[in-house]
Amino acid sequence: MNKTLYWIHSTLLVVVALTLLLAAQTGIELWQVNKLNDFIVDANSSDELPDNSYVEFAHAFYADEQGDAQRALGLLTRVITNKDAVLKASAHFNRANSNFRQAQSLQTDDPKKIPLIELSKQDYRSALLLTPNAWDIRYNLELALSVVPEIPEGDGLFEKPIIDSQKSIESVGFRVDLP
Fold this sequence. Notes:
mainly alpha, Serine Threonine Protein Phosphatase 5, Tetratricopeptide repeat, 6 helices, elongated
C-alpha cells in the first residue's frame, strides 16, 4: 500500500509540475500576443517595429491610409519575404494597389505613370500565383491592363511573315483566246 501511495504521490507531483510549466508557457505566449496586438492597434506606439510580419502588414496598411506610400511600400516589401502564402499574397495585392493609386493620381503625360502601373501589374500577377481564385486581384489586374495594355514582345506570334523577293513569284497576265 505504501508503494502505491508513493507512486501516486510522485505521479501527481510530476503532473502538477508539468501543468505549471505549461501554464507559464501559455502565459508568456499570451503576453507576447497582447504586446503585438498593442503594436497593431497603436500605429504611433514606436518607430521600431517588432520582427513580426502581421504587425508590419498592419502598419503598412495604416501608413498607406495616412498617405505615406513609400513607408507602406517598404513595409509591404519586408512582409513579402514571409513564408505565409496568404499574408504574402495580401502584401503583393496591397503593394500593387498602392502603386496603382499613385499612378492614377499622376497626370496623364507623367513619365512615372507607366512604370508604376507595370509594377502594379507585376504584383497582381504574383498575388494571383499565390491565390489563383482571388477575383478582386483578377479584377484589379484587368483594370491595370485596360489602362496600360500589354505590348507583345518580338516572339514571332504577332508578326506578319514577310515574303522575300526571291521567293515571290511574279506572273505576267496574258490573254488566252478561245479557238
